[in-house]
Amino acid sequence: MLTLNYIIRRLATAFAIVIGILVLTYILIYLSPGNPAYTWAGRPRGPKAEEAIKMAENELGLNKPLYIQIYIHVNRFFSGDWGLSLRFKQPIIVVITRNLIASLELLIISFSIAVPIGIFLGVISALYRGYLIDKILYLISSLFISFPRFWIAIIFSVLLQSLGINIFGRIAPDYTLSINYVTGSYIIDSLINGRIDIFIDVLIRIIPPSLIVALYPTALTIRVIRFSLSEKLHEEYVKQAISFGLPRNKIVYKYALRGIIPAVSQLQGITFAYSIIDAATVENIFNREGIGSAIVKAIPYNDYPLIIGLLAVTGILFIIINTISDIIQVVSDPRVRI
Amino acid sequence: MNSYVKRYSYRVKSPIRVFLGLLRFNRKFLIGFTIVLTISILSVIGLISPPYYLEGWGIVTEDAMKRQGLAPCIPFNCPSIYHLFGTDDMGRDLLSRILVGAHLALIQMVSVIITSIALGILMGVIAGYSNIYIEKIFTYVMELFIIIPSMVLAAAFITIIGRGMQSVILALILTWSPWYARLTYILVRQLRELDFIRICEAMGFPRTYIMFRHIVPNVAPLIFVEAITDSSSVLVEITSINFLIGAASLTSIDLPDWGMIVGYGVRYIRTFWWISFFPGLFIAVTAFGLILLGDGLSEYISPWLKRRWRLWF
Amino acid sequence: MVKEEMETMVLNNIAIRARNLYIGYDEGEKILWALNGIDIDIPNNTAYCIVGESGSGKTTFGNAVVGLLPPYVVTKGYLEIYNNRVIDNDRLNYSGIRGDIAVRIPQNPIASLNPYLKIESIFLDILKHHFKSISRKKAFEIALEAIRSVGLSDDVLNKYPHQLSGGMSQRVAIALAIAINPEIIVADEPTSNLDAYLKGAVLNLLKSIISKGKTLIVITHDILFASALCNFIAVMFMGSILEIGRAVDILTNPLHPYTKELIDAANLSYTNFKHFDNELRNNSKGCVYASRCPYYFDKCIEKPKMYYINQYNGAACWRIQKSL
């Protein structure tokens, strides 16, 4: 029962953090130098500037006291009215959903490549520590962490272009109108529609970017598993299991590896948040849609409502991921549970 | 008895001897340190006197306009020895821009890391010694700021404050210092259980004395070594954000940060590929040197990791 | 009752034999020798105690018997278990030993149980490996029997290791060892972490193990505990065996000065306990005890061999040879 208690408390904290993010976004608006309405309206210049600023003032409710402003702001987010994007001229919620699903697709596929490979190579690295295979894996993981992913993406895309393979965009242009969008994720939609050729096309286009985004999580997982597993293999219970004659695989996987699940899951939770930057740059280079391209298009237009909306949404997404990883940590260790 | 005494006596080494010992025996430290030293020297050159000073900072001079788009010095086909990496589309010499970018990268990275460590250790130590309510608030705020992605925060700051290094640095400080604060907080909680701290508390020493005289010197080296290993990720993060800004800018950029040059050069990738290639190469090498440096130091602190070990059962 | 019967048994079968055994740990720059030339014969069906202070190499010997030597170990000489050469100069071959012939009872019982599994899962793992194919029900029965024989209640099987106290987990560890039914059991300081009442309980348990006809090697620093439990005692100091003999003889008539010191310290009669610190000119080749010996004389520069005064008892000291 302690587990359930902990989960409920954790969910309550997560919800409180979500509210905190929304309050924070509003404080950012409020604290911007100059007139907040000026920033909210996107720093307009020209003839219609005054009108735009007045509209923004009304939207933000600047004439009311601060806590009422925050209350209005938070309410608006929960009711789904996030304002209009200045750059895309569409409701922000539509823009963000479209881009968010694209980025999530990329991130989920990257992590499903990165985590198994990372665990596999990390276990090898820990079991043969100090030998040649470990030194090679250490070198590879250090290279993956230090090489900027956007640079690798550029080289990769040039390579693919010179080979004649065209993998830009999320989907080939002639297919765009042939399927109805249910979820917004091309992979799922093409399967729902039954069009296998579109599915294969989308899949081919998503593999190079996801390989590049997967570099950083793989390298970090290898490093963390190498360190933690080496420590775990020296613990008393592993030695006792050896003395009882248990087979090697069982000791490594059921005894030692079980102990590092909390560390690995916490790492994945944090790395997911960091990888959004890699995903953004890679999306830009491969000309896909996503959070990165949304930001890139928003900055020159000073599209502040869109940026604030993105901040809130990514924050909420990462809170969910972190809460899940926290719950996994607690559930997997009986010492905390009971 | 005498053999026991000889086996267990230590001599405290001075920092210089430790450093020289590391250089001699620890190969990772040696390679990492040489790389970082080279980049630092290059950045000093870039600050003081790069080959083409004005062009390095982004100003398009008249000479520059004459040689727009010069290719870099390929062996056996070197057009001009003075433009080792060629020039970009506006004719500015790429080598000078890279050298100036070196010092910008180092300044950005060092300011982020040092401020984050300082703020983080301060907040972590204070939180470790406060009552339960402040601790709850502390963990809440730390988690809030760790969750927020640095890129979107940087974009928000750019819109508010305006373009420039300050927004990116501010966003990164706000994202990284809670990470170090959380690490120090965990370490402080562990240290408080140790006897020597308990003795101090029981003897009634003031809290600030315990915090700054006993806890911080124990926490700071570990955090510092971790920060050096993290600094390569910070460098890649800074340059990635700048890459996006450079890719988004509609006009030619002036500030020659490495990431921005790469971002700006993406649109010329088919023709002038060297604009994007060489700054990225420098980022890669610098980050690699930093991570080797950090790993060498952490090997020195925890030497049992170096021992060779294979699955023997 | 048990001791007299043991002594009249024919002690022909030698379970463990070691000749000139050197075991050291490779620290990189130098090698740390834990065992310096051990010659020992441990017969079958006896309770053999190895007594020594910390750093004397007794844990290394216990690990060598069970097969827990780490990969950076350096060995010389040979060690045989039931006529299989387990350590042969620098080759180690423990196939068939771990878990089948020799099992260890750990010093720190709570840390030695997998914290992520229930006790019954640990039993199942071990029994499944030992019996190659065994049904869950049968394994459960064996586990229940083992748990009951150490005096614990049945619901221990359903708990996690961190829910057990120190004494309970030590008894669970002994139950695990009993369930496998090995020939040799090495108990590594079984009572160091326990209080006096639990010491007595574990003592009784170990005695009942002996009565089942196994070879029990107990490693301890407490010579009185050793004398209460074992037939034979070997006293070790800094990697060499200084005295071997039957427990009764050693307690009543210790030959080696170090043994005398241990008995005096255990009996808390400190009047005879003085600390010596002799000057040595050449201490690497001589008697290992020379720096603390009150009877140090010039012959002690040479390392003494084990000198037997009767069939069971012997000491490694020049003084014995001189006086007899």
From TrEMBL, chain B:
InterPro entries: BP-dependent_transpt_permease (IPR050366), MetI-like (IPR000515), MetI-like_sf (IPR035906). Its main location: membrane. One of its GO terms (cellular component) is plasma membrane. GO terms for biological process: transmembrane transport. Signal peptide: none annotated. It is a multi-pass membrane protein. Belongs to the binding-protein-dependent transport system permease family. This is ABC transporter permease.
